Amino acid sequence: MRTAAVALLVSVLAMASPSVAAKIKNADKVDGKDAVGAAASVKQRKGKLVATNRKGYLPDNIIRSARNADRLDGLDSAALVTRTAARGEVLRGEWAAWGGGNASYVEDTVSFGKTLPVRVPSTRITVLDEGAPFTANCPGPGQVVPRAWLCVYTNTQGGVTGLNGYNASDGSDNTSTIGFGVYGDCISASCYQYGSWAVRAGSAADAPPRPAPRAASNPR
Predict the structure, then answer these.
(1) Among 18, 77, 156, 216, which is 20 to 30 Å from 99 by CA?
(2) How far apart, in whole angstroms, are the C-alpha atoms of residue 115 and residue 169?
(3) Is the confidence at residue 133, as pLDDT, over 90?
(4) DSSP readout, 70-126?
């Protein structure tokens, strides 16, 4: 008799489950913690679970600040800091200029990779064509002796003459503090020129004041 009564009770609950389920309210806690919506204030959500908004996002101020990341897009954080070259430090690199068309010109722009304390004036830029003898200030590729001096070495060239260095920012004959440009006149249907460079960082005590900008007749 008792077994039959239990079976009857279970059957009644099973038949009534849809209507019973419809009346069940949201749980007051989740694992012992209260929950609030995305619009709750910082004070209201303190120590509680926070739901996302209708678009699936959490509030912008859900954290006070993010921990510093060691890398950004694979780069070490130190690589993202603007760096200034120390006085006397030598920076090196390569350049290449290609083009074509008689009476035109070839050109390349170079980044030093670091910021120089001062620009290198035109009087302290040495540009050596292919086969030109090295100098005391520019004794060979990758080398530069005086501070605030730029050496531009040409490894190979063809159909180019009159190689010059200049400031790509304003067209003056000096460098900028972040890089320089190099150009030459093309005298052939196909022109090319490439090589290396070396600059030794200087200070205001090493280099005279910046010269005036190049005249408007400059082809750039």
Answers:
(1) 216
(2) 14
(3) yes
(4) SEETTEEGGGGS--BPPTT-EEEEEEEEEE--TTEEEEEEEE-SSB-SSPPPGGGEE
Give me the numbers of helices (H) and strands (E) for the chain, helices first please. Answer: 2, 11
pLDDT at position 194 over 50? yes
Number of residues written out for the chain: 220
Residue 91: what are its φ and ψ, rounded to 5°?
A: -110, 145
CB atoms within 10 A of CB 207: 21
Would you give the DSSP letter of residue 147? Answer: S
Query: Beta strand 90-99 with 125-128: parallel, antiparallel or unpaired?
Result: unpaired
- Structure confidence at residue 144 as a pLDDT band (50, 70, 90): very high
Mean pLDDT of the chain: 81
Given the DSSP bridges, would you call strands 179-186 and 104-111 parallel, antiparallel or unpaired? antiparallel
Provide CB contacts within 8 A for 53, sequence distance 6+: 37, 38, 39, 59
Helical spans, DSSP H, in 163-220: none
Q: Rg for the chain (alpha carbons), in Å?
A: 36
* C-beta atoms surrounding 122 within 10 Å: 18
pLDDT at 135: 97
